[in-house]
Write a structure and sequence with these properties.
The chain is an alpha+beta fold. It contains ten helices and 18 strands.
Amino acid sequence: MTGPVHQRSKAALDADIRARRRTALVVNVRSRRGRRHFATVHRRLQATAELVDVRPVADPRGLPEALAAAADSGADLVVVGGGDGTLSEAAHQLAHRDVCLGVVPLGTTNNFARGLGLPLRLPAALRVLTDGKVADVDLGHVAGRHFANLTSLGLSVQVAEHVPHRLKRVLGRAAYPLTALALLPGHRPFTARLRIGEEVHELATHQLNIANGSHHAGRAIASDTGLDDRELVVYRLGDANRLRLSLATVRQTVIGPRRPLDRTRFLTAGEVWLETDPPLALDVDGEIRGRTPVQIALEANALRVMVGTAFPDR
């Protein structure tokens, strides 16, 4: 988890991106809009940059290799098109590297892009790649992996395993809460024990989330969360009661919380030790990776990313 021996400053990397225009492109063409828009993205980048590597990826199992090759291609900017799972893999591959990630949001919920304040419409998102600035944002780290948005456990693991790919294509982000509500009657609650510094918190729930990013299910987690705030946010949806979880899931999906963190029951930390009874699998940005007990940590300014000029880079 250490950085490279040499890493350019953000200003120097930004200047090299504009002067040399050396760009790599990786698109998950299985993502919700990836196949439909790959040709357009490719054509637009060809008109504004020197493409040193182009990789449409049809099998998600090939993403780690494709992203690692793009990072080693000599490009200053690695443009990645796909959903949150694809961009989480990109964040892991590019963390602490002397390159910048360019985001083309082509997924279902696009939580990472929303957290960066990026436009979701393709022409505007592509303009950020040429008119934006290089910023550095935080990443989470768990079970040997970086994550951009969210590590969760409980009902969400079953949702990640069972949400139909076709339903995501048809309904978009609404596919997740609908799948969750269908699975909830058969799901059993669990007890989580969280150690944050010298404090220990124990709670019962069906769903626990540890967020680095600011959005979940396409909605803001709280009114003042961010990808660059040096905090993990720990919260549960509802408690051991199924009805309250159902109401919390619907509320999160429809409007998202409007309150700031200091007026919620959320916990914030730079590092969390998590145990559960029984031990549970982890959903790390939509992929099942690792099990409890586990340590979850924040890595500040771990990833360089191209954002709009109004993004409040810290």
